[in-house]
Design a protein that fits this description.
The protein is an alpha/beta fold and 237 residues long. Helices cover 28% and strands 19% of the residues. Strands 1, 2, 3, 4, 5, 6 and 7 form a seven-stranded mixed sheet that branches. Strand 1 and strand 2 form a beta hairpin. It is globular, with a radius of gyration of 17 Å. The chain starts with a strand and ends with a helix.
Length: 237
């Protein structure tokens, strides 16, 4: 069975921002309560990007920064046609969707911001990452209650078939209590990993048998927590 290397990990979480192997073992990253999301209220992806963004939903901001951290010294000024990306989110980008709707109702269609509108889609964060880093390879965005392992499985398949030489897989959430069903909570932020085939230096090795060998991670607090639980579980196995 083909084995692949997680060569780097980047994260933007209420507990902090960082990259590298410590993300696979630090229990503090999972020590979260809903009030901690306030720590990301003023987060900006600007220091992590080469381009200038006129507007970013927090979902895009967290996702882009986590991807940048996972890529490390990746040169975003060049096209990387054999690099792909898979992103997964349970709730998408409800803050911008709500913001645009409020403008539409309050000001009318003529004055609702066209800059905000596209950032209310769940797929915008992953699409922006592909554009920002020049990725021209396979690309998928998953939203909803599906198992976060589906995004990893997509990436592994693309590497196995030779359609890509590297894949980013990222999970992100950026919601608030207004945008959640009563009684639901979600950890905001983003986690991204860089997957490669061959003999790349590995923080962790992964294959499909290992991926699907355990129970599905719990989605109760969103895809970010589920993805982090999964990765730290791999590291401890």
């Amino acid at each position: 069975m083909s084995r692949f290397a997680i060569t780097n990990l980047g994260w933007v979480l209420p507990a902090g921002t960082g990259s590298g192997a410590s993300g696979l073992t630090d229990p503090n990253l999972l020590d979260w309560v809903p009030e901690d999301n306030a720590a990301l209220a003023e987060f900006s992806a600007k220091p992590y990007l080469n381009s200038v963004k006129g507007y970013l939903d927090p979902a895009g901001s967290y996702c882009l920064a986590a991807c940048s951290l996972a890529l490390g010294e990746h040169d975003g000024s060049q096209a990387h046609n054999r690099s792909g990306i898979a992103t997964v989110t349970r709730y998408g980008a409800p803050q911008s969707a709500r913001k645009f709707h409020e403008q539409l109702v309050g000001k009318g269609a003529r004055y609702a911001s066209p800059l905000v509108f596209p950032h209310g889609y769940a797929n915008t964060a992953g699409n922006l990452a592909a554009i920002e880093f020049g990725f021209g390879g396979p690309h998928v965005v998953l939203q909803g209650r599906q198992d976060v392992r589906e995004a990893l499985d997509f990436a592994l398949t693309r590497l196995e078939t030779g359609e890509a030489d590297e894949m980013l897989v990222a999970a992100y959430e950026a919601t608030d209590e207004i945008g959640l069903p009563d009684g639901m909570v979600a950890q905001n932020g983003a986690i991204a990993i860089r997957l490669a085939a061959g003999d790349s230096a590995a923080l962790l090795e992964l294959d499909r048998e290992r991926l699907w060998g355990g129970p599905a991670p719990d989605l109760d607090t969103g895809s970010v927590t589920a993805f982090l639980v999964l990765l730290q579980g791999f590291a401890q196995a």
